[in-house]
Amino acid sequence: MSPHPCPRTFRTSRTSPRGLRALRTLTVLTACAALLAPGAAQAVERGEGHPHDPLQRQLEELVRAPGGPPGAIAVLRDGHRERVVRAGVADLRTGRPPRTGDHMRIASTAKAFSGAVALSLVGHGALKLDDTLGRRLPKLPRAWRGVTLRQLLNHTSGLPDYSQAPAFGDVLRADPHHRFDSRRLLDYVRDQPLRFPPGSRYQYSNSDNIAVALMAEAVTRVPYERLLGGLVYGPLGLHRTSLPQGYRMREPYLHGYDVGGPGAPEDVSELIGMSGVWASGGIVSTPADMSRFVSAYAGGRLYGRDVVRAQRRWVPGGASEPAGPGRNDAGLALFRYTTRCGVVLGHTGNTAGYTQLIAATPDGRRSLAFSVTAQINERAEPALLGRLRAVQENFVCALLGDKN
């Protein structure tokens, strides 16, 4: 179930930094105001794709392509105007079309939410970007102690990826619905050294965002799920976004499919539980909520300018997984996508049955939430990924006003 749209104030640790006093002022009033959500108090103008519209045609061609997703939906926002382009179906059994209020697994775009929590705490003074694992999580391996929050957020930490650990994979294969202890996921790699000296190079790792969430919990003594509610969902009015532990999807939802087999597409929406991905990819949301989130997050509306500047110090060539449109560079739980039409900031993700892109202009005024109901990545479908990225870039160009 989604958190209440007006979450209660949470208490923080007596030993927390003085900046945490600001968090105690999170009240029902501020949570419900949703002042950071673009257009929150005004009606939204909706538009639907026309058969002769090039974006509509491209989305339909993507769905019809060999190995293509059964369904796709894109939400483009420009101020108070919203345009929806959709193709295929949300459910092969019923044939109904995708809708902006359908729930879906957002995969690694959930890492942007962990970034939103951590950077909000940095803005409040509760955390510092140079805080280390040794200081905040001293029970983690000694070899990891010098890793900083900054390095976790921009994937230069060197932490081994727990999701690639053989023991983790064995448990998941034996029981895809296994209930992991989300706060012990790093135990699967605690006997491993760092992959490289922290800060020396870029390497995407799911372990990074697990550690980020644990650091946030350590300084606040508040569960990560409640931090999401108080710092992200509430202020932005994300009423259909949640972080479940189980495998069930909340109705209505976009059904995710495995289309790679020889037979008919297989519904994998509820294939795995979310306890094993947690802060690295477990959030369930909707196209409408994701559009609202990325507008505020990429636009820097959740924290002050100093934090925004730090977030936008780019690691050249750091790509999200799968790679987003254009040239990719990595910031703090945010990527810069430099396309032929201009720059947008956002995140991508993929998991069983879903591939996601969220992106917005640096001022947050224009945003794109682009979702397809199949997993498309470099490892499994390199050609289809190239096609997907090309379509995504065309949607970004439309968002930025390119007429070509």
Write the layout of secondary structure elements.
Blueprint: H1 28-33, E1 45-48, H2 54-64, E2 71-78, E3 81-88, E4 104-105, H3 110-124, H4 133-136, H5 149-153, H6 166-174, H7 206-220, H8 224-236, E5 257-258, E6 266-267, E7 284-285, H9 287-298, H10 305-311, E8 315-316, E9 327-330, E10 335-339, E11 342-351, E12 354-360, E13 366-372, H11 382-399
Parallel strand pairs: 1-3
Antiparallel strand pairs: 2-3, 2-13, 4-7, 5-6, 8-9, 9-10, 10-11, 11-12, 12-13
Helix pairs in contact: 2-11, 3-7, 3-8
Count of DSSP H/I helices: 11
What is the radius of gyration? 20 Å
* Coarse shape: globular
SS content category: alpha+beta
Helix content: 25-40%
N-end to C-end Cα span: 44 Å
Low-confidence stretches: 1-47
- Give the amount of beta strand, in percent: 15-25%
Number of strands: 13
Mean pLDDT: 89
Largest beta sheet: what is the strand line-up? 1-3-2-13-12-11-10-9-8
What composes the largest sheet? Answer: 9 strands, mixed
Question: Secondary-structure element sequence?
Answer: HEHEEEHHHHHHEEEHHEEEEEEH
